[in-house]
Amino acid sequence: MQNQDYDFTAFVFPQFDLDGFRPEDDDGKNRTKFEKYARFSHAKFLAKARFHFLHFAEGGDFNDAIFYEDVQFGNVEFGSKNLETGEFDGPVQFHKTRFEGDCIFAAVFHDKVEFVDVTFPADKQVLFSWYRGRTMFQKVGIFISTVFSSKTKFNHLDLSKVSFMASDVSNVEFTECVFREVDRRVKLFDEEGVETYYGRTKNEQHFGDLETLYRQFKVSFQNKRDWRRAGEFFIGEMEMRSERLKLESNSSRIELCLLDIFKQLSFYGERPERALRVFLLLLIFGIALIYLIELCSGKGFAEAILPSLVLGLNAVTFRQAANLDSQLAELVITCLRIGSAIVLPLFVLALRNRFRH
Question: What's phi and psi for 300, nearest 5 deg?
């Protein structure tokens, strides 16, 4: 299909099935080639639409097109410029689709949309943005083994029902995007939707993939110096590592124990108030024990208060303590020093992260 104008603006297609498979193609791509820019803007597809084995050399324009049923783009190559906007009422699938130029996706997908083995160009602009203030992914969006360009942006989108499993998002920029938050942390859709949409069970491989995905999101937000968001995804990364270690038969129990302590004391270095509470409880409990020991040694109630306070504060601030007659008091002070040596650095780390946020 060469040297023609492919202008289907405002066309109404009762049915559409364009399969351009060419087994005799010399370049081995087996695709029918459209030499010029293809325009489907404001077109209406009343039934299922299939675009298979096609090459739009200069790109395609689906601006404000309306698809009432399923849409499939299989083994399609788009050229220099592509506009994917409009309404998609049925399921949409981009399978082994390759984009060679700048792309704008500003559509509303009312049903499931899948990008499977899709490749975006490394040096071109790719934008996923809201469409006239409406949510792009009304039901669920799935990116599986998708290769994003370093200039890909997701802008003003609700990503609480979007999966990025097996896709590298380290260099993707997320601006003003909404993620689902549960238990004071970001919870990606892949944690909950894996059984429904993938048919996979939650095993160590799944949690390992999630750990990698959270790490990639963390790197993405670190690249734009959004430390608050980066910290939230770091928490998710640590949670998935913990879940993976619980299921692995040869995992290190020491590492799992340390992770649990890290979580309980400071929520992985992201909650300074938790570390401060633990430190204060440790100090109060230690002073109370020393006070009881002083009382048992024969001192009065008022007489034992000041020495107990001094000994407790000296212990948590690592000052030299006076020689004590009671071995039990020395044991308590030693425990206070060890506990504060663990909790105080975590508090400083979490406080640093909070100020950076």
Answer: -80, 170
* 144 and 223 share one domain: no
In whole angstroms, how large is the CA radius of gyration of the chain?
30
d(CA 233, CA 170): 12
pTM of the predicted model over 0.70: yes
Compute CA distances 92 → 32, 49, 262, 287, whole Å: 21, 10, 43, 65
Report the alpha-carbon distance of residue 222 to residue 142 in Å, rounded: 24
Provide the residue type at 197 as one letter.
Answer: Y
- The token duo for 68 is 């009432």
Distances from the Cα of 118 to the Cαs of 11, 15, 230, 291, in angstroms?
A: 28, 25, 26, 68
The pLDDT tens digits of the residues spanning 147-194 come to: 898 889 999 999 999 999 888 999 999 999 999 888 778 899 888 765
Instruction: Write the CATH number for 135.
Output: 2.160.20
Residue length of the chain: 357
Q: How many whole angstroms separate alpha carbon 123 and alpha carbon 7?
A: 28
Q: Is residue 202 part of a domain?
A: yes
Residue 23 C-beta-side C-alpha neighbours within 13 Å: 0
CB-side neighbour CA atoms (13 Å) of 244 = 17
DSSP H or E segment with residue 289: helix 272-296
User: Same domain for 18 and 149?
Assistant: yes
Q: How many domains is the chain partitioned into structurally?
A: 3
Render pLDDT for 280-322 as a digit per residue (tens, 0 to 9).
898 899 888 888 888 887 777 777 788 888 888 888 877 766 6
Q: Which amino acid is at 224?
A: K
Residue 311 and residue 218 in one domain: no
Q: Give the E-state strand segments of 117-238 in sequence order.
A: 126-129, 141-144, 152-155, 162-163, 173-175, 181-182, 185-186
